[in-house]
Amino acid sequence: MMATYEARIPDSRLHDLFLEIADLFGHAERELYVERYRHGRSLSDCKREFGLRFGLTARQFNAIEATLRGKVEGVREGRKIRMDSLLAAIASAERTIRKIQREIKQGSLAPDALRKRRFTLHQKKRRLASLRVRLAAIERDKQEKRIRICFGSRRLFHRQFHLRENGYASHEEWLEDFRRARSAQFTCLGSKDETSGNQSCTRMPDGRLRLRVPWALQERYGRHVWIEGIAFRYGQAEIDAALLRGTAVSYRFLRRSRRGRDVWYVQASIERPDAEVVTHRRLGGIGVDVNPSHIDIAEIDRFGNVIGVRSFPMAIHHRRKDQVDAALGEVTADIVAMAKAANKPVVIEELDFRRKKAALRDKSPRYARMLSTFAYRKFHALLASRAARDGVEVITCNPAYTSVIGQVKFAQGYGISSHCAAALAIARRGLGFGERLRSRSAFSVPVRNREKHVWADWGRLARRLRAERGRRPSEGDRGRGKPLSSSASGGRKPDPDPAWDGFAAAPGCNPPAQVVGNAVRPAP
User: Fold this and answer.
1) How far apart (Å, rounded) are the C-alpha atoms in residues 168 and 404?
2) What global pTM score does this model have?
3) Dist CA 256 CA 424 (whole Å)
4) String of DSSP letters for 55-122
5) Does residue 487 form part of some domain?
6) Do residues 235 and 293 share a domain?
7) In what order do the strands lie in the sheet with 261-271?
8) What per-residue confidence (pLDDT) applies to 326?
9) The predicted structure's pLDDT at residue 462
10) What is the CATH number for 423?
């Protein structure tokens, strides 16, 4: 796994050199983009020409080409994501239009409501036409193999059309900022067959960095410059170990503005080997259920029985990105530490909300706000990185019906919340335990359907539960923490003691659990 560590460059006398190198590399990168992806020239022809034209070494040109190739691949992947999002948004808009058309056709709406629905229908049709135009433009770029990149950021580029609103007194002031944004960083590409893993920027035994100056700037700055005082607050031991292993170390120099002045940083990227896995599936596992406002976990033993549960509050609404990252990092650190102490793997669902987020316009404001703040991908990335560093195995499983299974099968029997019960179902699925419905909740299945997957039964039960939640309370709405109604339990009435629901008939099942604070333990 790649790991990147950052340190501040204290010597301000080198800032002018860094700015000139970044400007030279940025100019060469933009020209290479035109020659490679607009004119279709080969890489070997560009390499010979650019070395003489811009005064670059072969390794410096390779670093520029690698940076540009990464941006191009990012554009292609982003285009796929945008196409999927547009397709989901188009499908959602079409469903909404059909729904409104049915309501109007029924003729049961009042005059004011009818006028509002017609106006909504008109706006939905306009949005649908706009989405189709955007999708056609992306498909045309894909067919023509056109790569669109705005060096310096598209957001800053569009600020020139609204100078006063963006705090610019003139176009020349904006142009200066735009050019500075285009020359804010440069990369020194590493290789394992070079000294200290990098020929363009070499780390010496005393901790100094020796930076190779491009040919075009050697008359003023010399062949090499020395960067002193570099101290990586985090990752220094990992970088030293990578140098001893002889692996490649790539350095990236970037400029940031701090309190009105420029500050340069250096980032070292290395291939960090994963730690030896110390967890064992035969001991059990820890299931993780991720929700927008909290994260719930459940630990099971080797028999699939719950040992303990815990809930981590995650109030990420109205928070900045760095605050959300810090909160997620603390939770992942606690989960991995618990898994490492118990020598058990972590089981998590494999979720993807990109298609759902693309259709938020047609959802309720509460649902849209909840889903837009759902940082599942960030949590999954942090958990995978932390687990790989500590030697904890992470198992991903299909999320189908885990909430229903936890709610029906485990929540009442163990006396835990539905989310902790979902985490229990996730842990059991990741370790391969069965998910058969109990006799109390199972349906009478015809002989011809008994070979179907068990999820078919859970799907029928989930549809029945959703139908019951949509009824009025007087019609048997189940409610949170209440036992299933007679229709959800296969026509039978619930036992007088719902905490023992279904456990007596299950062979080898433990008694209900007792909740103590945030933990749960089996009853004696």
Assistant:
1) 56
2) 0.73
3) 45
4) T--HHHHHHHHHHHHHHHHHHHHHHHHHHHHHHHHHHHHHHHHHHHHHHHHHT-S-HHHHHHHHHHHH
5) no
6) no
7) 2-8, 261-271, 250-258, 185-188
8) 85
9) 76
10) 3.30.420.40
Residues of the chain with confidence (pLDDT) below 70? 317, 352-374, 438-453, 455, 469-524
Residues near 399 by beta carbon (within 8 Å), at least 6 away in sequence: 349, 350, 351, 426
Whole-angstrom distance, CA of residue 339 vs CA of residue 162: 53
For the record, the structure tokens of 177 come out as 């900022």
Query: Two tokens at 248?
Result: 């490649």
Burial of 298 (0-12, 13-18, 19+ CB in 10 A): buried
What is the per-residue pLDDT for 518? 40
Specify the amino acid at residue 257. S
Q: Could you tell me if residue 472 is inside a domain?
A: no
Query: How far apart (Å, rounded) are the C-alpha atoms in residues 363 and 365?
Result: 7
pLDDT in tens, 38-60: 999 999 999 999 999 999 999 99
> Residue length, the chain?
524
Picking from 231, 251, 273, the residue at the C-terminal end of a domain is 273
Q: Residue 423 burial (CB < 10 Å; 0-12/13-18/19+)?
A: buried
Model confidence over 170-195: pLDDT tens digits?
Answer: 999 999 999 999 999 999 999 988 88
